[in-house]
Specification:
The chain has 63 residues and is mainly alpha-helical. Helix content is 78%, strand content 0%. It has two helices and no strands. The longest helix has 30 residues. The relative contact order is 0.22. Keywords: Membrane, Transmembrane, Transmembrane helix.
């Protein structure tokens, strides 16, 4: 679970870079910034979810 959380956090960083225009370039007349922000939101949400599940499992084992 922790590996997936780190993976999706890294995807969130890549998505933020795309959203800020630091990574990637327009394809034809289409900008990729909105796709980058969508990737960021989804990746951060999944990373938080996987961290939540991982910490919950960790705490359940200790009790």
């Amino acid at each position: 679970m922790l590996i997936f959380a780190l993976l999706f956090a890294a995807l969130g960083v890549v998505g933020a870079l795309v959203g800020l225009g630091e990574l990637g370039h327009p394809i034809g007349a289409h900008g990729v910034q909105s796709y980058g922000w969508g990737l960021t939101v989804n990746a951060i949400a999944l990373a938080v979810y996987f961290l939540f599940v991982w910490t919950r499992r960790f705490h359940d084992r200790r009790t």
